[in-house]
Each structure stands twice: as C-alpha cells, then as structure tokens.
Automatic annotation (TrEMBL):
Signal peptide: none annotated. InterPro entries: Fungal_SecMetab_SDRs (IPR051468), NAD(P)-bd_dom_sf (IPR036291), SDR_fam (IPR002347). It comes from the Eukaryota. It holds the Pfam family adh_short. GO terms for molecular function: oxidoreductase activity. GO terms for cellular component: cytoplasm. This is C-factor-like.
Amino acid sequence: MAVLNARSVLVTGSNRGIGLELVRQLVGKSNRPEWIFATCRDPEGPRAQVLKDLAAKHQGVEIIPLVREKPSSVKDAATRVTERLKGVGLTLLINNAGIARRNLVMEAETPEDMSEVYKTNVIGPMMVSQAFLPLLRKASLESPQNGMSCSKAAIVNISSDAGSITNLFLWENAQVVNYRCSKAALNMLTRCQSLGYANDKILCIALHPGFVETDMTGGGLLSVNESVQSILKTLSHLSEKDTGTFVNWQGDVLPW
C-alpha cells in the first residue's frame, strides 16, 4: 500500500479549516514529516491560537507569517524555510489558503471583489510556487525515487469543483462568480505548472477537497476531518500519470 512519506511539508492558510486539519493530521502520522511549515497571515493574532497551541506540542512544526499576494512576505517566508531546512529541499507544497466573496448573484459582483479574490487565489499560489521552486527542485534531485510523487517533490493546489466549467458545482445555491473564476484560473495554473516543471520531476495537481464544513463554506457535506483523511490518502497514491490533472479528495478525476 502506498504511503505518504514527505520529509518536509509547507501548508498555506494553516490557522483554520482544511489547512489546520492538514497540520494536525500530518503531526499525528507515525511517519510524520521532519518539518511542517504552517503559514498564515497573522501568527500573533487570535485566529492563530489553535495553530500556536498545536505547534507548541509538536517539535518540527514552525509557524511562518505569509501574505501570499505580497512579494516581500513570500520572499521572507522562502528565506526562513530555506534557513530551517539547512541545505535540503522542500518535499511538498500545499497551496491551501483561499478566499471568497459571498456574492450570491452575478449582479452583486464588483471589480474590487473579483480582483481581490483572483489576487489571493491565483496570483498568490503562483508566487508561492515560484519562491519555493528552488527548494522543490532540490528535493526532487536529492530523492532516490524514480518518476513523480508527493513523497519526492510536489505542488498541490487546493481548488474547487465550483471552478469546473463542466460541473459548475452548486450553482443553484450560490453563484459566487469571483470564487468560481479564480478556481478555474487556478486549475489552468496547475496545468501550466505541470508542463513547466515536468523536467524537474515535480508533480503538480489541482485538488477539490469536497464540500467541506468550514468557516468559509458555512456548511458542507463532509467534515474537515473526513476530507483531510481522504486527501492525505490520495496524495500517497499520486504519480507521474496524475500530474497536471484535477482530482477530488478521493482521487477521482474531475472535468475542467
């Protein structure tokens, strides 16, 4: 049975929801990563307290401030992770942080909302991936594994079936065009990354976590625990045949 065996993992948006649960479940693994870098916008703020309590109990969990759409913040985070890794690479980058403006109908959309959501959900993951690319390349080169895997070097972009042009998941419930357009663009970014980083043997995947019960969704069909359990299992099975695809939490391929 395939096992996720990543030496180091970085998760953005780690102070709540799926990001926080990813950190929680990763530290609970018997073969847990040596380093888990948990990023959030304001590590000193009240919304990061649960993450801080978790980090205090587990060695190797480091909280790093990161505002993904700010180049200086991204650069500082990459420098800090590079220093902590002391010459080795970063195995797994999970671009999880994202936002939405709950505009239920198209008429409510504004240029400001569209721009803000696109900047966070698309430009942010692009900049973070670029900043950590040297560490991902190093991890890939250092790995004795053939092919591609999340235990070698990988970028996982947390997307949404709401961005599927074919499925338009839950359109009747909420149109949220700002979010849908940003996730469709994130899917294209993932496909481009898979082609651009193919020679580096870096696996790139877009992943729909399910309709998860989080602060952002305000409800859902899956608990965050169930979603993350399945996500980690799916990540353990991904290989070069999956790079550049769009899958759900169970590993099923979704239409763009």
